[in-house]
Amino acid sequence: MLYFENDYQQGAHPSVLERIVETNLIPMSGYGTDPLCESAREKIKAACESPNAEVYFLSGGTQTNRIVISTLLAPYQGVIAAKTGHVSVHEGGAIEASGHKVIELPCENGKIDIQKAREYASAFFADENNEHMVFPGMVYISFPTELGTLYSKSELLELRRLCSEYNMLLYADGARLGYALASPECDVSLEELASLCDVFYIGGTKLGALIGEALVFPKGGAPGHFITLIKQNGALLAKGRLLGAQFDALFTDELYLRLGRHAIAMAEELKAALRRKGMRFYLESPTNQQFVIMKNEAIERLRQFVRFSFWEKYDDESAVVRFATSWATDIESIAALEKVL
Amino acid sequence: MLYFENDYQQGAHPSVLERIVETNLIPMSGYGTDPLCESAREKIKAACESPNAEVYFLSGGTQTNRIVISTLLAPYQGVIAAKTGHVSVHEGGAIEASGHKVIELPCENGKIDIQKAREYASAFFADENNEHMVFPGMVYISFPTELGTLYSKSELLELRRLCSEYNMLLYADGARLGYALASPECDVSLEELASLCDVFYIGGTKLGALIGEALVFPKGGAPGHFITLIKQNGALLAKGRLLGAQFDALFTDELYLRLGRHAIAMAEELKAALRRKGMRFYLESPTNQQFVIMKNEAIERLRQFVRFSFWEKYDDESAVVRFATSWATDIESIAALEKVL
Amino acid sequence: MLYFENDYQQGAHPSVLERIVETNLIPMSGYGTDPLCESAREKIKAACESPNAEVYFLSGGTQTNRIVISTLLAPYQGVIAAKTGHVSVHEGGAIEASGHKVIELPCENGKIDIQKAREYASAFFADENNEHMVFPGMVYISFPTELGTLYSKSELLELRRLCSEYNMLLYADGARLGYALASPECDVSLEELASLCDVFYIGGTKLGALIGEALVFPKGGAPGHFITLIKQNGALLAKGRLLGAQFDALFTDELYLRLGRHAIAMAEELKAALRRKGMRFYLESPTNQQFVIMKNEAIERLRQFVRFSFWEKYDDESAVVRFATSWATDIESIAALEKVL
Amino acid sequence: MLYFENDYQQGAHPSVLERIVETNLIPMSGYGTDPLCESAREKIKAACESPNAEVYFLSGGTQTNRIVISTLLAPYQGVIAAKTGHVSVHEGGAIEASGHKVIELPCENGKIDIQKAREYASAFFADENNEHMVFPGMVYISFPTELGTLYSKSELLELRRLCSEYNMLLYADGARLGYALASPECDVSLEELASLCDVFYIGGTKLGALIGEALVFPKGGAPGHFITLIKQNGALLAKGRLLGAQFDALFTDELYLRLGRHAIAMAEELKAALRRKGMRFYLESPTNQQFVIMKNEAIERLRQFVRFSFWEKYDDESAVVRFATSWATDIESIAALEKVL
User: Fold this and answer.
1) Is the pTM of this model over 0.90?
2) Residue A225: which H helix or E strand, with range?
3) H or E element: which one contains D330?
4) Three-state SS for D290?
5) What's the pLDDT at D34?
6) How far is C88 from chain D (nearest CA, A)?
7) Rounded to a whole number, what is the distance in Å from the CA of C101 to chain D's nearest CA?
8) Which ipTM was obtained for this model?
9) Measuring CA to CA, which residue among B139, B146, B188, B133 is closest to residue B165?
10) Strands (E), B133-182
11) Nearest to B237, CA basis, from A207, D285, C205, D230
12) How far are the Cα atoms of B7, B56, B59, B60, C216 from residue B205, in angstroms, in the given order?
């Protein structure tokens, strides 16, 4: 069986696991006050070139999104997101359960249509009856998006200007951030992203960790008593060291970026193989997720040998499916996949 | 000055106010257990031909929508609504603040596109990964809609079938229900609406009451301890009699329907007058709200003599405005409006 | 039948009702922007000698408490209240439903034990692990309390100091405020209360209005976009004029204080009558609610002629019951009650 | 430095970590559908002798408590807990943030006073005005309690009867369950606990896991779409295998019980050493946490050599401190502690 289902099907990268193992029996204080968390925080601040950053470690993406959005917004505010955004579709209503509307805007290939976003904000703040409506207080993007696409630096600058103009926060969900940064089409560095966003997270779960996301407020300014807010959301780990150890490893010797580069190299091989086999791409993705349109019968046949994801119905005879590479993908399985195809 | 701004600019219809005045000094028990509420409940059940109905009185539309939706849905469920629905746009995020997603579907002239709703529900329940998404548990419609339009009986039957098929509740927001029932284009009676919906409300605030909406569960089945839930939402009036008295008056001698008919007769006169003046209609509304497209300069000039509502920008030179009639509109003001135009 | 069950069993005081009736057909703008609300706001600001005050009108006490507490507290904060406080016991969990803990402190005769409150706050803020706990952000008192008792001016000053010292807000629930201010034992004026509290409300429902409470931020500082927050809570009346008209009447020619004085005069008569009949008082209440301990059989016999409230079990053979006077109580019914007793 | 601060200062027991390491690179499906979770579930069901049980894995205690309580209660219900309960005091208001009141009852040594609980429930359900109050829908106990004490089997039976009588659920927080089951004073087995509770959890974080709690519904009956509810709370791990692997190890060859027994044996040694040193016990704890009263100066001196927890102020000159053993405590450190003392 070949595995291209997602980027979280294996455990942790061996170097990450090693840090957990080697520090396992050392007594440490709880709740993220341990030296591993402290070291990881410093390394992340350095990697972001953000000496005033505040860094917190959380367990997963939905948890992070819910905590960030619900604690940074006022009760009368909602968050703008692409109609296909993770917070819009795939978090079981976590944002609304925390009391906030996800204001879904039109998007293309997973990216917010910035012109539409500008028109929306402009009309909203010009409306003299807007007190009966939810105020947009934040723009949520994912980088890369759900569909593997990337915002260019000039698009991010445009979003930053829009947010500043209308006093909204800019938040980037980096569940797969390492796969964005390693893409040949990415013209934004980690430091630049940090300078453009009010808050973002660096995803570990999908990039070599067992669990964990590093939430970064690059200029500081986390909500007051943020630890209590994390606790209240059931997200404060007694053994915060588990997260600290992993991010400490990921940000040692640029492991995080190296894992991203490996996955992207594998994705390029995958694309080439799919192209050689005449597969029809659903869209052009420059990162680790590749979407192709296949006949329903072909999908059924392929399932016997390969694990991959059904994405959505395309038409009555075919569907969009996803193949993902990760830090753990090897060149042999891509060759094997090409053979099977 | 002429008044066509909305249908809640005056106080109560004189007969409604009279019932409050004449019962004012009689001591009664609190929280809706008084004889006025009891009498009003019986009259509403009779008018709906729903002997098993449960009827509760609440203060306003947003309050009613929030309580209905949040108490009938499970935490993992959201409510389907038109993108232009009141719950989607004009309730300051009340539904999301109660923890539930408003699943906004495409609409035309304020009405949910039923075919799109069917496709959405069908795709959702066929998706084997739907446990990561919000489950649709209810369809919310307004009758008439925000734009004054009406669902036909066959459309309501289709919505009913859709709901039954996918185990969703059908809820009708009747903030202006009396204006729907009195429309010449309405082919649904109050009894039929009651038989088709799981829950709906009969709006008083916009139809002759000072305040108040009558929430009807036509087949019973209100959530357990509903009084406590109303209390918890801050919506249980100590002097429930205020609501009971008004609905008792509104449902005596068909006052409610008569007020609706008067407003619709006035709306027909208004339409004729607007047409005679060559006004361009934004859409064809069979109820008490009429939407026309006017040049921005014309709007400014008219504001000196008439109060009406700005609805939305149409293009750079013109906008959609709304003229509303109500139980309180008289023929003289329509004649005067025509003259001004 | 004689009526001493509560202070909201009749409708509105005739002067209050008259203001509604006489302004009924005048078209006015909605949502509290009408001239009646404007006038009432000015009169209340004058009565409070608080020219910078912000005043909002809401429908009932639980609604007001929920909105005040949930919009003024941060998510990590709770509100301190007496164990017998209205928010602690009789609001169906409205405060918790809005996400905040009611931190219940020991009390005597309905009043927070200020020494205990100081010990609690002092221990809390000294605890280096307090980030795992709910932060006290507000002290809620009712004035008069649930048991009709009053804080003295020096006690209010002490609470004010405590709040200022620990950066907590002081909020007074004045559901029956007029009955406090009119009590011979009250050494605090409305202006003084306004100068001591960060926020309080002047109750209308129990003091001559059909419905309505006037929420006062004496020094300004209501939460941003407070109208949207009210809307989101389902508490923004389209016909805000209903509340404005009533408070405009209540604050004309000191009607509010006069109604209070009448009820207190009646309460003094009631106390004298109860004493003459040898009734045993549960506590000494200087306001309009009187609590006496009666044998269970006597309670049953009295119910045939008089409506009064069961308060709580006292012992196996007797219970605490409540007799309340109001603006509507007359001297004849007290004489009749004495006769019946 | 000697470590007696808490029972989560080290990482995982070596056998637990080994299971993570040895399965690390095997591709598995996400969100708890992997074979490790499946195996762990079966072992837990067997250990509980509950073949119909439903078992879910979550990350931490507060998260588990919040999800259990908020998804099993109706919105009008609250949860009864001891005034010193974890949900009452040390979860940053997580339960209230989910919308539910924690009904705090008097307790002794951390245990709910069952007689008081019965009186409360009996009075509540007899009160004809209880619809204005929060309904008790669940009794929360911790086993062992925050203070290390245990309910006897007969007390648990009494709680079970109380719950059944008043239609309340019985929920046991087993953050330290293994330390209870191993105590010589515990007369309840895991199977018996499972048969008495509607729901409980087996704590991993404090008993040899890096992270993780096993939530057990012994008779089935988890809330519908529980996975979506977990997701909505931000608690669904993509790599659920991390939890599955650990509980699979903990429930292999009774490791969980063996770890508990070790900690209790060490606690007995610790008690003996403390007694030999003439320390004054705050209460008699039969589990792994020992509370003693020490002079403030003695505390300061001891801090130079030993890490332990400040619990609370006792009087002006002394305080209660806690020493905890765990699966990782060795006899040498207890000897060393005695020496230091």
Assistant:
1) yes
2) none
3) none
4) strand
5) 98
6) 9
7) 6
8) 0.97
9) B139
10) 135-142, 169-174
11) C205
12) 9, 15, 8, 7, 26
> Are the beta carbons of A61 and A86 closer than 8 angstroms?
yes
Establish, for the pair of chains B and C, how many residue pairs have beta carbons separated by less than 8 Å: 152
**Distance between CA atoms of residues A270 and A57, nearest Å:** 33
Closest-approach residue (CA) in chain A for D4: A27
Nearest-5° Cα angle at C45, C41 to C51: 120
From the list C266, C279, C263, the residue with the least C-alpha distance to C340 is: C279
A131·C232 Cβ contact <8 A: no
Residue A203: φ, ψ to 5°: -75, 130
User: Which chain A positions have a beta carbon within 8 Å of D234's beta carbon?
Assistant: 59-60, 62-67, 94, 233-235
Nearest to B76 among A92, A100, A131 (CB): A92
Query: CA A99, CA C187: separation in Å to the nearest integer?
Result: 43
Residue count (chain B) = 341
Chain centroid, CA B209 distance in Å: 14
Estimate to the nearest angstrom the gap between the alpha carbon of B140 and the chain centroid.
11
Cα gap A83→A103, rounded to integer Å: 8
Domains located in chain D, CATH noted: 2-7+256-340 (3.90.1150.10), 14-253 (3.40.640.10)
Q: How confident is the model at residue B340 (pLDDT cuts 50, 70, 90)?
A: very high
At B320 the pLDDT is 96
Angle D331-D335-D338 (CA atoms, 0-180°, nearest 5)? 140
- What is the residue type of B159? L
Cβ distance of A328 and D25 shorter than 8 Å: yes
Taking one residue from B and the other from D, the number of pairs with CB-CB distance under 8 angstroms is: 42
pLDDT in tens, B201-256: 999 999 999 999 999 999 999 999 999 999 999 999 999 999 999 999 999 999 99
pLDDT at B51: 98
Q: What is the pLDDT of residue C102?
A: 98
User: pLDDT of C46-91, one tens digit each?
Assistant: 999 999 999 999 999 999 999 999 999 999 999 999 999 999 999 9
Identify the CA nearest to B46 among candidates B241, B254, B226.
Answer: B254
Q: What is the pLDDT of residue C23?
A: 98
Q: What is the pLDDT of residues B188-197, one digit of tens each?
A: 999 999 999 9
Probe site for chain B from D133, D134, D225 (most B CB atoms < 10 A): D225
Nearest to C50 by CA among C259, C256, C196: C196
End-to-end CA distance of chain A: 13
pLDDT at C310: 93
Residue B53 C-alpha, separation from nearest chain C C-alpha, in angstroms: 24
* Number of residues assigned to chain D: 341
Cβ-defined contact of B231 to C62 (cutoff 8 Å): yes
Q: What percent of chain A has pLDDT over 70?
A: 100
How distant is the Cα of A223 from the closest Cα of chain C, in angstroms? Answer: 10
- CB contacts, 8 Å: C76 with chain A: 224-225, 228-229, 232
D54, β-bridge pairs: D217
User: In the structure, what pLDDT confidence band is assigned to residue B42 with cuts at 50, 70 and 90?
Assistant: very high
Q: Flag whether residue B74 sits within 8 Å of chain D, measured between CB atoms.
A: yes
In 3D space, the residue among C234, C238, C240 whose CA is nearest the CA of residue C98 turns out to be: C234
Q: How far is A224 from chain C (nearest CA, A)?
A: 9
